[in-house]
Amino acid sequence: MKSLGIKTVKAIALFLVFLFSILMLKTISQYTSFNKHIGFLAFKQQVVDNPYWMTFFYIHIFSITLCLLAGLTQFSNRFLAENRNLHKIIGKIYVYNILIINVPACFVLGLFSNGGLIGITGFLIQDILWAYFTIAAVIFIKKGNISRHRMYMILSYAVTTTAITFRIIKNLFYSEAHHDYGLFYGLNVWTALFINLFIGYLILKKEALLPGKINGRKEN
């Protein structure tokens, strides 16, 4: 019964990530017009004429959904058992997308983040953790340590999905009449990161993947 409950929660979580990934894809589609006065760009008029910032912005928004969708397939034991080669291919796409495309792009975007110093530091720390968790996952799988690889991939994906958590919080709680946009934005960056890392911690604890307790045994 307990196992069934865990599987049900995981299935619901995966469905929600998939659903919000599709909704994000719909939001991102508005930027295919390359109009500088729509959506998020309406709040970034001070930098929309900067070709470097705009280039990194478009690189990020048009590739991040691929990270979200690629990550969805990577944590199913059944999928892994039946599709090992496909798992590796999708995993490489996920890693290359993050390390070569999105980490550099988000670092530049983070320097011009809304929310002042709170938002900037939040995005830069998020970017550093994203790179660290993803690189660690690659290092451990090359060493053949599947448990640690899985642990860091879960943490990496927790950071990846902060984009979803950020938008959920904004849509549920932000009110132009009651909140200062910059302050709310900056605090939301940190809130989304803390929530996702805490969820990641709970998953690791449930699966006994935390350091010192790998697969229920003390780690050497």
Which characteristics define this entry?
single chain; 220 residues; 75% helix; disordered C terminus
Structure, explained:
It is a single chain. By secondary structure, the chain is mainly alpha-helical. Helices cover 75% and strands 0% of the residues. The protein has eight helices and no strands. It has helices at residues 2-29, 51-72, 77-82, 84-111, 116-142, 146-160, 162-173, 181-206. Helix 5 (116-142) runs parallel beside helix 8 (181-206) and helix 7 packs across helix 8. The protein is globular, with a radius of gyration of 18 Å. The two termini are 33 Å apart. Residues 213-220 have low confidence and may be disordered.
Note the topology:
Elements: H1 2-29, H2 51-72, H3 77-82, H4 84-111, H5 116-142, H6 146-160, H7 162-173, H8 181-206
Helix pairs in contact: 1-2, 2-4, 4-5, 5-6, 5-8, 6-8, 7-8
